[in-house]
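Sample 1 of the test manifest.
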Amino acid sequence: MKRLLAAVLLVSSPVSGQQIYDLLLKNGRVIDPANHRDGPMDVAVTGSRIVRVAPSLPVAHARVVVDVSGYLVTPGLIDVNTHFSELKPDYNTLRYGVTTVVDAGTATCATFANFKKEVIDHAKVRVLASVSSAECSQTPEIVAGAVYSTGALLFGNARKTPPDTISSGMDSKNILLPRANMGTAMSIYLNLGTTVEQIIERVTANPARAIKRPELGTLSEGSVADIAVLEIQQGKFGFLDSARTRLNGNRRFRCVLTVRNGAIVWDSEGLSIPDTIRAGPYTNFK
Amino acid sequence: MLRGGHVIDPANSVDRVMDVGVTGNRIAAVAAHIADAQARKLVDVSGLIVVPGLIDLHAHVFGYEGSLSPDDTALAAGTTTIVDAGGSGWRTFDEFRRSVIARSATRVLALLNIVGAGMVGEPYESNVDDMDPAATAAAILKNRDVIVGIKTAHFAKPGWSAIDRSVEAGRRASVFVMVDDKIFTNSQRTTEEELLKHLRPGDIHTHMYNDRQMELIDRFTGQVQPWMIEARKRGVLFDVGHGGGSFLWPVAARAVQQGFLPDTISTDLHSSSILMQQSDMPNVMSKMMLLGMSLADVVLRSTVNPAREIGRYPEIGTLGTGKIADIAVLENQGGVFAFKDAWPAKKLGAHRLDCVMTIRDGKVVYDRDGRSFPAWTVTQ
């Protein structure tokens, strides 16, 4: 009888389709252009994978529930034009919801091993490298050939046609002025008339296709849990272009939470942690 | 010229709306009204706060695994002077100087680690044989223009060797020691004895609000330990050193309530602290304000006090006429903001300081809203 019961349990658990979620992002507006999803949905993560994207997933099945109502939930952003010869990757990416970057040209074939050791292996953000020579032996981190380079963003050009991919072009010379980062780049297009949906597509599905990594830039069930939770803030903002002229805007993108490989790596609003009042008695033990 | 900001310059007892004029790399005038005609470039900073460039006494920009590059982190936060707390030791300082200090727009100063190899983890950091007071003092005296003190940190063996050798090096080079010590079983040392017997007046204990490192608050009475107050009377100084694990709301709240304020507000800036707690200088200052400190008081402890402790006052830390033009323009934002500690838990606050503009050596190096640049119009 005991044996029979065990067999029934083994069979019944996958049939019911229930699963424990490590992280459940509740009540956000999911924009996932690769899967043509756009609407109120929950996103469930187990381990390092996205396991479910659907409305009204059960809170009781999740170890950590984060209410992201009022925010956009998108695939982790992909920045296909970055330069990490001097800048450190994590600080300049995760806070903008960027979970994959392509470093354009810092490493050559000759220096790639060192770049991998010094930069790629230390970063939480996924660092891919674009190296110019075709003679390189292919490694998983290398994307051969330059994929994108505008070099500069000028408002006069940007307002005409949005590019296929929106990237930052960040390096140590432009990181402070004109603040080359994905938040700035996306906000500029938003204020020049590109729609939110168009922008999200150009920082997720499009760059994934451009770098031939279709498994990235999506919230498909089974894919790596790289997720950005974004807010569109209203207010008075100013943005600079490469010519150092200022665009006055009334909206901007801001990243409030970033999940990389299933782990929360940025949470500016503390959405995933309790208030001191509800955190229980304080002890000095973790 | 910065027009119409609320200038807070504790060194000169200024706390009101003023104009600030910069000529070349120097502060030329701070006055109630400076004529527009006198300015080549005029920036409206009305509604904003103008303070001396912030000084972060405890940060990591070399050596340490989680260290960051100074310019993109510090200057975007209004920090114009950053003190690397022990990333390098006497064996590695030359490389630090060449590769980071000389190449940064931020003024980067250093506390030399008593460990010759620097802050490179175990077993190196607990290797007493590599703690050479004579060699450490010699390197400091050779680089006195940028080395301002000594750091001892993470010593995981019993006894006083690391602290006593640091103090010995400090004596030889006439500089202070900053201590980051841990409480652990069988350490054969106590914070009380350390503060009262081993450190000198002017030496600094960092991580003051981390009760895993020093028992600031008696866990049974909830009161600040009497020997902490005694140590302060002796002249030992206390630094926040927020970091990833060293700011705890229950500790800081009790301490501030009982008047045990930090001598200096600092970040212990490194990769995980900046990502998980966003603890740059404006963030840590905002947290201290949330606990009841005034804006003028947190500015004092982020400018004048650290400048004094590193022996650079009044060269930096003030907006006095003729001083180097290192200026931070801050916004006191209203809204609902989450401030996170190492527990981890958050405290919601209705105000937050955010850096709007940073001027370093007379140049605008960061401008959040582009307000010092001309507006773009469609016709262009």
